[in-house]
C-alpha cells in the first residue's frame, strides 16, 4: 500500500506565533524601487513558522512579487517575514484579503491586529480605510508623500552626511540593537 504525504498549513497552525502587527513600507524593496513596491513585514516566532508563512503567501497570492524570511533572528529569537507587492490602487483590499486567510492560521481576529506605517509614530487599527488613507497607492502618490528616491544616494556620492532616519519602533530598535548602534 502506497500513500502520499501532503504537508501544508492548517487552521491554527501558527497560533501565538505571529505578532499581531503588520508593518507597511518600513523596509526597502529588494524587487524594485520603493515608490513602485509596497513592503509588508510580519514578526514571527521561529524560523520554521516564518518559512511556513512565506510558503503560504508565495503559493496563495499571484499579486505577491516575493516573500522572504530575514537572514538572521532578532534579539528575542523572532524572525521577520517580508512580503513585496506592486503599489497599486487596490492593494489595500488585497492586503485585507490575505490577512483574513492568515487569521485562519493564527486563531486571531482582525481587531487584535494593528498596522504600523512608515513615518507614522502611532499604530493604527487594521482597517482597509487606514491602509487606503495612509499608504501611497501609486508611484506618484509615494513620490508626493516621501519625495523622489535617490536623495540619500546623491548625498552619499557627494560625500555628505545622510540624515534620513528610520522610524523608531520595536522592529527598528531591535535592528539597531543588533547592529550595536543603541
Give an overview in words.
- This protein is an alpha+beta fold and about 180 residues long.
- It has a domain at about 20-145: Gyrase A, domain 2, CATH 3.30.1360.
- It is built from six helices and six strands, in the order E-E-H-E-E-H-E-E-H-H-H-H.
- The protein has a six-stranded mixed β-sheet with strand order 3-4-2-1-5-6, covered by helices on one side.
- Helix 2 crosses helix 3.
- The protein starts with 20 loop residues before the first strand and ends with a helix.
- Mean pLDDT is about 85; it is low at about 1-5.
Give the topology.
Elements: E1 21-24, E2 37-45, H1 47-60, E3 64-69, E4 78-86, H2 91-106, E5 114-117, E6 124-125, H3 128-134, H4 139-146, H5 151-157, H6 170-179
Parallel strand pairs: 1-5
Antiparallel strand pairs: 1-2, 2-4, 3-4, 5-6
**What structural class do you assign from the helix and strand content?**
alpha+beta
Total number of beta strands: 6
Examine the coordinates and then state which fold CATH places here, giving the name of the CATH topology of the domain at 21-146. Gyrase A, domain 2
Distance between the termini: 60 Å
- Roughly how much helix do the residues carry, as a percent range? 25-40%
Radius of gyration over all CA atoms, rounded:
17 Å
Amino acid at each position: 500500500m502506497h500513500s502520499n504525504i501532503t504537508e501544508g498549513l492548517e487552521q491554527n497552525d501558527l497560533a501565538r506565533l505571529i505578532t499581531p502587527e503588520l508593518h507597511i513600507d518600513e523596509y526597502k524593496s529588494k524587487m524594485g524601487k520603493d515608490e513602485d513596491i509596497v513592503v509588508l513585514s510580519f514578526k514571527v516566532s521561529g524560523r520554521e513558522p516564518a518559512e511556513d508563512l512565506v510558503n503560504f503567501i508565495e503559493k496563495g497570492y499571484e499579486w505577491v512579487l516575493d516573500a522572504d524570511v530575514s537572514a538572521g533572528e532578532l534579539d528575542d529569537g523572532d524572525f521577520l517575514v517580508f512580503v513585496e507587492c506592486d503599489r497599486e490602487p487596490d492593494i489595500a483590499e488585497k492586503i485585507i484579503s490575505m490577512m483574513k486567510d492568515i487569521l485562519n492560521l493564527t486563531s486571531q481576529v482582525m481587531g487584535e491586529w494593528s498596522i504600523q506605517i512608515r513615518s507614522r509614530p502611532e499604530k493604527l487599527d487594521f482597517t482597509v480605510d487606514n491602509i487606503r488613507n495612509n499608504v501611497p497607492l501609486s508611484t506618484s502618490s509615494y513620490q508626493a508623500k516621501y519625495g523622489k528616491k535617490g536623495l540619500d544616494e546623491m548625498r552619499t556620492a557627494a560625500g555628505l552626511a545622510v540624515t534620513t532616519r528610520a522610524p523608531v519602533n520595536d522592529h527598528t530598535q531591535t535592528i539597531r540593537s543588533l547592529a550595536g548602534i543603541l
